[in-house]
Write a structure and sequence with these properties.
The chain is mostly beta strands. The chain contains seven helices and 37 strands. A hairpin with a 2-residue loop joins strand 8 and strand 9. It is globular.
Amino acid sequence: MHPRPSRRAALRTGGLLAAGTLLPPLSAEQAYAATPNTGMATPNTDAAAAYTGAWRAVPGILARIRPPAFPRRTFRVTDYGAVGDGRTMNTSAFRAAIAACHRAGGGHVVVPEGRFLTGAIHLRSRVDLHVAEGATIAFSPDPRDFLPVVLTRWEGTEAYNYSPFVYAYGERDVAVTGRGTLDGQARLGPWESWYRDGGPQGADQKLLREMGSTGVPVARRVFGDGHHLRPKMVQFYRCRNVLVSGLTIVDPPMWTVHPVLSSNVTVRDVTVDSTLYNTDGCDPECCSDVLITGCRFNTNDDCVAVKSGRDEDGHRVGVPSRNIVVRDCRFSGRWGGMTVGSEMSGGVRDVFAEDCAINPPDFPGRYPVKYALYVKANKKRGGTIDGVHIRNFTGQGVERDIAFVTMDYNGGEDGTLPVSIRNIHLDRMEIDGAQAVLRLVGLDTDHLRGVHLSRSAFTGVREPDSVVHTADLTFRRVFVNGQEVPQP
């Protein structure tokens, strides 16, 4: 029943390209130079000099992360019948433009100024969906416009469900770029009512989790029409060489940017405004070599959340997330700024985040960040988180704790699998206002190991730390409310 809905997109270069003209493909360096606020993947000499200790791995990670390059062909969706009046359905026009671009060997599918209503958009290899400044892709509020179902991952469990609004499966060299807007219009559809206040999503959520835990074959986990699992906004599934750049993304029905089982992923200079329930900003899941840079997140859940599958189904797939770099981002979301989990059963290792701002006054969110760093796991998930490195975070008004690391998320959910969290490092943090600096929750059977704070200053802290079943906790030149913290 899998419709093999692979479609992919690639990279926007400076300016509109002459339609139908084939020019030499842009190199990665040219493509980066063509876009403001690029977050170049190769660190300069000064930055590289700062990569010591665990951070020595970062230059190598960044050197592998290169956005795709595309021929200078353009395919305007209006040439395939699209009408930007905000009322005409343009699903067929998007499909035709993407197919033509793919058949020609790749290029840029250009969405010009206007408001283009559509259902699901499926991308293909070597296709860049470029949303020009002044253009909006507005997604239909009717769930039927996101059928047939596709293979997806829903809260860490594989299933067939409504198509993500922008989707690619098994493609290479794929991008969504431009200064335009992706508008999920989720407030106009039924999506929020499915979730909130005991809505009908709960029964399907429980059923899917049971299917994943008991090993029901994925081909039999079919949801979609008649069910109530909300689709993701932008999802790349089993893709390589992915770029999301320059966009504003508003009102998604659930998680916003969700690469799954993908590698060489760049998300840069993207603004996310997602204030409905459970609308994370960017969730790399079972991914490797990922750069998230220069982005702004105003969310009603975690801003960036690194994941790797849920419970038994996550162990079945068994692919970790690793080599994730986040930098120069602004976090104004409701839960974690930088988050790992809770879907982490496949394992997470080597996550690096630097130079990010928490609740910045020039980018106020609807909700304040509760935790600058939020790491969550439990014995139902099982698995290992090894190596989360945070440095040079600044900010204010953290609602709860600077760092909340728990191995007992959601009360443990009656799990029995071994779980491990180790090697958490926070360095050069400066944050004013929090309930506490640390809330660390290990287990009597599985201790949290290796939490290290250094060269940091926290002010306006109202309560002492809470530390349970934690081994190897260290402080070096850490000041709280003007007083240096002694070694425990």
